[in-house]
Amino acid sequence: MQMELDDLRSRVEYLLAANRESQALELLRDNLSEHQGSPDYWALYSACQLNTQDYAGAMSTAQAALALEPEHPSGLEFLAISLNSLKRRAEALDAIIRLVNLLPEYARGHYWYAMILVGSIQSKDERVLARQAAEHALKLEPENPLFFQGAAIAAEIAGDNRAALNYLHEGLKIAPHDEGLLRAAGSIDNAERITGEKSKVLRGLLSSNPMNESLHEDFAEAFVEKQGIYAQRFWLFLPALAIVPSLAGARGISQSLMGLAVVLLSTGLFALWNVRSFKRAAHSLPAGYLKDIGGRHRLLRPAWYLYGASLVLGILGAGLGCFGIADVLGAVLLLCAVAAAQAAAVLVYREKAGVPHGQRDPEAVRRLWLKLSGSFAEGFWKRLLSMVVLLVYFALCVPGQNRFAAVPLGAIAMGMFVVVGGLTWALFKLGLSNNAFAYGMAISTSARRRGSALLRGNISGLYYIGIHLLLGTIAAGLSLSVMIGGASLFESSKPAEPADQLNEKELNDLRNNLRTHTPVAPSFEVPDFPTIQPVPLDQ
């Protein structure tokens, strides 16, 4: 059925809002013969294809609109968006700059100029330009929530969190339920002060738009982000179990049973704490949604199993030590527990990066490795403080004179080596110009100094990795020296029996014998020496 262009636009916009893109495209195709000579029709077609992520098609239809009207605003806008989505950034910037120069009062042109720059910032100059463009778009249309969203994102990228929060707050005052603003809050630090907890916000958005796939992805990622809290907990708790057998091992059955009770009770409380944290994170999920998240992020379930296995290994290792059965085997089991927890943390870091498995888009892969680098590198001082705590554990284990003192040192080594391995592999995958250290330095420097910024970033990255490698190597060497101290694998940690001692009566008898006994000196004869005749001096 043929429709007037205005009616067609209204119908297509309604279908797109209802996430019925296929019907919208079918309706556009049905009206092709009627409106194929209209640039507005082709711009509308391009907008619909952008909604279905058909970026190549959107580029073609935008070019068709521009072929009919070279200065068509929506045509230039959609051409720039599609080119940027196809990773043709330079061409996208050319198209959007052309639009800004052509129509300086067209607010959407300034907005998309900012967003294209923000999508892949290359220098400090681009951060400044992005913020200026986003704020100019807001100045042109001060009541548009979309431009508050752009200004908030650009301010956050520029490092001005206070301004970003202010833009977010002002935008939500105008449109409290705007999906774009609420989703943008997820990338702004401290935004929960304004919007509330992220997962609750996303659940509210899903309730009003349940067919939005990108909202489902954001909701799943919000849950995955909360799984990162367990890494630090397990890194500090499992080595603490080594203290119990060091203090209670092989000191009698009563102390051994008490030590085992402490191990079981502390591990149970620790497990309960983490289960409650997990349930609190899953509380906002709809029924059955946890299974859907497991399907999207396939490494989460193995990570949970590894965390559980680490607790079982920790109980076994500490239990063997409490009864003095085999301190070496017990220490090895505890070290395996720490290793399992570290492996689980790496799997969670991988899922927190948020890129679907099998993704071949180079830009998506680059962002994956940048996010992974951030997960491994963040919290340097917190990591050092944790290392001090582990050294305190080591000091408490030393008086036990068994192999459990190797566990805190081994935990330090594993924590350092995980950081070294993750950052080194990311450096290899991203290269010298795109790794997190070089990229972070480059976007905070002007374009003219990009080369020196990349060099400084790589040097600082290698230094950061080297510090962790040095600390890890020292800790590993000390841990290994404790483990190979001479005990066999099943050597008991029971102390050696003291030598027999004389009682008081035997000591008195010995003293009396020494007083009355006169030692006899050995006799010997001095042999005769031959006579030495004097020799005359005149001979």
From TrEMBL:
Ranges where the record places region Disordered: 511-539
Keyword RNA-binding found: no
Keyword annotations: Membrane, Transmembrane, Transmembrane helix
Organism domain of life: Bacteria
InterPro entries, per database record: TPR-like_helical_dom_sf
The keyword Protein biosynthesis is assigned to this record: no
Residue intervals passing through the bilayer: 234-250, 256-275, 304-326, 332-350, 380-401, 407-428, 462-484
UniProt protein name: Uncharacterized protein
